[in-house]
Amino acid sequence: MGYRNLSECMCDLEAKGWLRRVDVEIDARLEAGVIQRRAYHTGGPALLFTRVKGCRFPMLANLFGTLERTRYIFRDALPMVERLMKAKADPAGALKEALRKPWLYAGAPKALYNALPRKVRSGPVLAHEARVSELPQLVSWPMDGGSYVTLPQVYSESLAKPGFGGSNLGMYRVQLSGKAYEPDREVGLHYQIHRGIGHHHGEAIAAGRPLPVNVFVGGPPSMTLAAVMPLPEGIAELLFAGALGGRRVDMIDGSRSPNGLPILAQADFCICGVVERGEKPEGPFGDHLGYYSLAHDFPVLKVRKVFHRPGAVWPFTTVGRPPQEDTVFGTFIHELTAALVPTVFAGVHEVHAVDAAGVHPLLLAIGSERYVPFAAERQPQELLTNAMSLLGNTQTALSKYVLMAAKEDNPPSTHDMPGFIRHLLERMDLARDFHFITRTTMDTLDYSGISLNQGSKLVLAACGPKKRELARELPQGFSLPEGFRDGRVFAPGIVVLSAPKHDRGRDEHDPRMEALAKHLEGVGGLEGFPWVVACDDAAFTARDWDNFLWVTFTRSDPATDIYGAGGFIHCKHWGCKGPAVIDARLKTYQAPPLEPDPQVEKRVDALGAPGGPLHGLV
Predict the structure, then answer these.
(1) Quick one: which of 62, 91, 73, 302 has its CA closest to 187?
(2) Which among 88, 347, 386, 581 is least surrounded, fewest beta carbons within 10 Å?
(3) Exposed, middle or buried, 412 (CB in 10 Å: 0-12/13-18/19+)?
(4) Strands 562-564 and 401-406
(5) Separation in Å, CA 64 to CA 326, 328, 615
(6) Other CB atoms closer than 10 Å to residue 84's CB: what's the count?
(7) Is the peptide bond before 323 cis (omega within 30 degrees of 0)?
(8) pLDDT at residue 549, rounded to an integer
(9) What is the pLDDT of residues 355-368, one digit of tens each?
């Protein structure tokens, strides 16, 4: 039986030695975030801050900080959920297994029953009330525009189809304070494009009605996981939370709620309100791409009540350049859903939204190439259909770069980064295999495009026999034009070099990059280097794969920032004859990278020093 609430989970983890109490005073402004990030990177336990400066509520950090701990939290129901996922992917195989080993599926009816939310008349969360300003005011990065809820469960229902079946539970950041908001009466609600709450909000706007929204914090851990689960449209996250949590989710009837919307009975906190027209600036906020997302107008939640349970604890995380605690969410979800990929995307066998590149900027995939099996040489055809499917469904639609290989060529796994990239570079046809989609939607948090939510995408699909041997050393006589320097081989077939600082405007090519591509046309011996990456600091970028992926794919927009030696456009198709050049410099219009506060870092150093209260934890 799973945990009813967060308190049961914490008691269990503490008994196992996976939760430690921190009784020294901790400041929610910057200090708590630094400690959480360090605890995650050291593989440390969950941390309960019992004394939060200026706040009466404890804070819980790093709850999902390791994959082992996350699996343990859901251990009771996880095996059956995994079997049900595999059964959906392969019904015939599941039936055979059930006939041979029926006991493996004995818990299936119970799991399906647990998926049904249960209406109750009351619950612990209604016991007490508070003001927004009394909640923990977490500020994670120095330039954040205020305090934020970083593990919220934002609940809304369809006005056209009210009830649990038409509900949405999402993790959309909530800004508790900031100069734009009326204290204790307004909070910011930042949801990105392609999010379920957007459909509900659109219905409310069309009907001229406010949208009721409840923000839950804490409660059963399965609710937090469900809020980030990329479920197909039409399947309520509440159902998944019950199945994964091993017990039905208790929801207090909306008649007891100030906005008419059901409330999670076992939540630690609930902010009840309505969203009306009248957006306000939200942000800046240090986000999971490793940069700040800047201030933009987003909806405002008019707060009607804030409830909390007795002994309420405020769970939180901080986000930043990957990997962070949310990386564990992604890995856990991938383990659950990998078998379902071919059922959602016909012809696609494996996908990998690359965490080190910020998730949405880079998607690697393996698909089928069966359209012309009798062809003398396999060419990307079905792969392009697969790519369009990936860009037209679920969260993969937000991908910026989609790199695809054919299953028939026996490529390495998409999780073998060096091997998969090498496989593509050996087979890519520089004149044929670049397929751009311009002036299209992109991830709200990605500032490399031409405006907020708008930029371009690139499908690079390669298949067939090897076309080149990748080089590992720069050719003799390798040279660069003035202003470019420090050319070095990062990996077979990839050159990284330092370029002059970017000084152009948004949505325009840089003549210096065009000059670099033109110069490379005259450099001999580059046949084994199909990729050249121009960046601000070649040494940093080439230090390891994490740096290379982060710099290359978070700082470039395909249509704006890809050039090529011998580049050409034929009937609106772009290609090149020599190396493709990716301009991965930090642009003048991009948000700044996240940098910690040195003084806060020193304070945490002292807390973690021998004899300090955090020694061995951070």
Answers:
(1) 302
(2) 88
(3) middle
(4) unpaired
(5) 8, 7, 21
(6) 18
(7) yes
(8) 98
(9) 999 999 999 999 99
